[in-house]
Task: structure prediction
Amino acid sequence: MFQKTRIRLLLAYLGIFASILSVFAIAVRTVFVHTMTNQVVDKLTTLGQTIAASSGFKNGRIQVQDNLSVRDLDMQRQSLQWIDIQGNIIYVQGNRTLSLPSVVRDSIQIQPNLSLLSINIPIVDTYNRRLVGYLRVSQSLDELNETFRKLDLGLAGGAVISLLLVGLGGIFLTRQAMEPIEKSFDRLQQFTADASHEMRSPLMAIRASSQVALRYPEGMRPSDAEEFNAIMRSTERLSRLTEDLLMLARLDKKLASTWENIKLAEILKHLADQFQAQAVAKNLTLSYQPPNDSLVIKGNSEQILRLFINLIENSIHYTPPDGKINISASLLGSWLEIKVADTGCGMTAEQLEHIFDRFWRSDTSRSQWTGGSGLGLAIAKSIAESHGGKITVTSQLEVGSCFIVKFPK
Result:
């Protein structure tokens, strides 16, 4: 019963940890990329300033000191470009040059498709103290991008391993966290089952005594007879409540029961005939549409019978006079689908969220019936799920409701 809760708790652990891990990985990568890029920029700036300081200006042209080895530049994956004040490239050393327009106003330029980063260093005439051109120093980012790629792989691999370890730890933690809750619930179930079982005998005794008293009304006052009738009605409600609690306790504990082949069509036909009198007494039209195929499931016949009794009783009680109730069954692929539709008072979307909760009653629809225990639909859901099926409901206020039960074929 707590398996879904444990799974949701484990997924919550993993989700929170994954979010924290993602933020951490993004922060680490951002800081690392920023630091490494700044190191490249600083290195290129230092190199450019050194070379620019050795460059001169003579006869209106930039004089380049050709004292750098092109081989050294290629080994460092660097290149140099001398640019005059008009933006014309006048000299190049190295093969890794930036193919962007000569926009020298930007001190840093990046060409993503070639993974190049360039720094523009101004060249100043030392005699006239005026700007005569620029030295563009370029550096290939291939090696740096490969480092980033390895970092990404390392972070991703570490995240996967961390999530696996957290998942294993989360399984242990969820078991530890849920163990006292499960034990408390088991004790509560046992208490409910024991209390319900023990209450059956005194309730039967009270009911029997009331019946005996009502058989001999000669020696009692009319008011006494009314009191005994009230006792009988209260006893019947308590008896039904104890039976419902006992069944829920057994369903929750998944006690072993005899399973057999159940012909749903026969059960539904029997129930339609059985409730016909109640429907007629309330001026309702109760119809049953038999399926074209033979609908057979494995299960406990008493529980399946109880499931559909609860649904049909629910529809009869919440459908006003002159209303209609229709029971239908069909085979949809590997599922058997049974519908109990009515033209009753219906429910709002907020009420539908709680319709299968135990002891829940809404202010408008479910409060009309005071004879029920508030456990009928909860029992129906538990029975359906214990048979590998599911139960859903669609409803519209003042239009009606439709309960859909599905069982595996």
